[in-house]
Amino acid sequence: MSLPKLNANSFEEKIYDAGEACLVVFSRKTCHVCKEVVPKVEELQPQYEGKFGFYHVDVEEDKPLYQSLSLKGVPQILFFKDGEYQGKLTGNVDDEEIEEKIEEFL
Amino acid sequence: MENSYDLIIIGGGPAGLTAAIYGGRAKLKTLVINKGTVGGLVNTTREIVNYPGYGQVSGEDLMKDFKKHVESFGVELLRDQVVRTDFSQEDKIITTKKGKVFSAKAIIIACGSEPRLLDIPGEKRLRGSGVAYCATCDAEFFEGEGVVVVGSGDQAIEEGMYITKFARKVTVIVLHDEGILDCNKVSAERAFQNGKMEFIWNSTLEEVLGQDNVEGVKIKNLKTGGSTELSCQGVFFFVGMVPSTHFLKESGIEMDRRGYIPVNELMETNLEGVYAVGDNRVKYLRQVVSAAGDGAAAAVAAERYIEEMKAFNSNVLESDKQVLLLFFNALDNESLEFSTLLENVNKELMERYKIVKVDMTTKKNLAHKYAIEKAPSVMVLDKGQVVMRLDCSAAKEDLKSQLC
After folding, report:
1. Does B37 touch chain A (CB under 8 A)?
2. Which chain B residues contact residue A35 at CB under 8 A?
3. Thioredoxin domain spans which residues (chain B) (predicted)?
4. Is the pLDDT of residue B229 over 60?
5. What's phi and psi for B393, nearest 5 deg?
């Protein structure tokens, strides 16, 4: 996993306090769809370096975090800007869909 | 060429990986292109108890062993997705999503299948917000809640029981009459004894309800035609699979109505040098063990096909002399006698020609290529170009005069 990992504390800091435009991938190790989606996100990161934040949350390690967001499945990509939730992509999404969504916030 | 291979296998599940083991062992330059995790859908199976030699193993661990085995034979694995194919030439061309282009002498299609969508209102919109397809991935999100499972096959019932570890209640929607499930008997008995499992018979799902998250489902009774609503927080769909063969629609490969590829015993499709194995082909039993069997058969067939092509190229296409390409049937006396006659005539002509014999019963591809229907048949070739077809019914002197 090459994306910076967030836990409940750093999630608060990065997403809500700093208000950076970013995405957060929620996944778990035992999920095969996550294993398809996460590498797609990882490959996109370099081209948005400095412009858009990329983070990762392992739901097995941070149970309170996904519970507080009342998530109902993985993989799930949540988008944030100015400390506010903007929308999500769920399931086996294509790289094009992720890119399109990112472009909305640039 | 760096991107040219003997054998390219599309898909890295048990069928593709077994084909890769056989390909690697036969010293074919082999590449496996796989879009997700190596092992494919088997990775979602928590427990496999019917793969010989493994009493009990998880799908993921079994596939790790398959992968290790593949790598020990020097096969290359690439994580990418095939988006386009051109199977019209002897060298088959494959283009991937990342824009890479590969060529191979033979192709094995082992891309498997994916969960079927029921395609009802709410299903797509609430995906990831209560609608789910994988219990291992998502069951935990429904701790203490009500969950609906659609389907009654092995996967539906076994996954349903797994979900009861987290959910308060699991309601299974079954198409059939009371007491009838499509799954194996052991699982059915366990499910009926599970206090958290409930069943709604003769029914199907009509709609998934909810604004931002799943709040309930609309269930249709197939006997009465009436609809009822049931409140729940999650819906898991296990309504069968569809083959992942959409990318082959333009390839010229024959498929049935649902997208499964029909093959013969050698796993040959209607296209020469293209094979289909595992869950994406028309077959009776879709299990890891039968997928592995498919992969082995296809790789051996592909190896023979490639060998046949290479031998033909060096013997016939690169020959300085003109070639008499004799198609014969090794089990037929007339064929054998004709073969001797042709040898004698060539001797009398001071070995003017090079005779290359092709047994029609085993080398069907070549016979097909030259539109040969009966044995014996002879083509005269010059650097691979057909110069003449001999009349094989003629007597010796006639035969000789045709060749002078």
Report:
1. yes
2. 36-37, 43
3. 309-402
4. yes
5. -85, -10
CATH number at residue B167: 3.50.50.60
Enumerate the residues of chain B whose CB falls inside 8 A of the CB of residue A30: 60, 136-137
pLDDT at res. B1: 53
Last residue in a domain, options B261, B282, B312: B312
Identify whether residues B50 and B187 lie together within a single domain.
no
Q: Residue B221 has what pLDDT?
A: 97
Which value does ipTM take for this structure?
A: 0.86
> pLDDT tens digits for B83-142?
999 998 889 999 999 899 999 999 999 999 998 999 999 999 999 899 999 898 899 999
Task: Report the run of H or E that residue A86 belongs to, with start and end.
Answer: strand A84-90
Which residues of A sit within 8 Å Cβ distance of B? 28, 30-36, 39, 59, 66, 70-74, 76, 88, 90-91
Would you call A32 and B43 a contact, using CB atoms and an 8 Å cutoff?
yes
Q: Strand, helix or coil at B241?
A: strand
- Final residue belonging to a domain, choices B277, B312, B347: B312
Would you give the DSSP letter of residue B268?
B
**Same domain (yes/no): B60, B149:** no
> What residue ranges do the domains of chain A occupy?
8-105
**Rounded to whole angstroms, what are the CA distances from B347 to B39, B340, B352?**
58, 11, 8
